[in-house]
Amino acid sequence: MSDPGVPAAGDKAPRLQDRILTGVRWGRLLEPLGFIKVLEWLFAIFAFGACGSFSGETGATVRCDGDTKEMSVISVQFGYPFRLYQIPFEMPDCEGEGGTRTLHLVGDFSAPAEFFVTLGVFSFLYAMAALVLYLRFHSLYGENKKLPTADFCVTVCFAFLWLVAAAAWGKGLSDVKAATRPGSLTAAMAVCQGTDVVCSAGSTPAMGLANISVLFGFLNFVLWAGNCWFVLRETPWRAPAAPRDAAAEQGAIDKQ
Description:
disordered C terminus; alpha+beta
């Protein structure tokens, strides 16, 4: 028989959870510093999620003899990390015995895309950690002045990196659009230079999700840059000096 004064094993977990949740001050989410950190966390997910999950398709049609009805359909799928030179597609060989040749898309735009996604992941992790610290251990955040200073420095770095990443990925996306246009696909195929060969461009790839990722990249820059002011107010650099002077004067009066 168990001692009635001793709590059961199943009661320990709820009490531990209650103890942890009791210390969380959810009301700080309504303050600018807490609310912006939530937006940073969400917008980072949207940014790297939209870029990392993107996939598109481009294509063209080739007719080796314009008078015949036989037509070869070329379909090429591409996506993150946009190493287009590694994506093969089959081109019909109109001069041979009806075989095919393997070609590849042109370009490598993985550097700006991977930098953008990596920054989004690190922003997501840091915003989540900073939010937990601000909600659960706010007293430590306020008493230890090194934490707000470090938070300010990291926030400035993330704001600058988001500006660089969004601009670089925006330029990279423009190059991806140019390289994956159906017109660029037909221009790269030597078979389309034949006199009797008819090449037609397919549908233009839908790049809406990639465009959204660039938009969220610049929105993240605006968020992190705006948050610099609210974090700066928590640092010793913005702490008012008047209370210290008043306390010193009061101490001098007491001595007299």
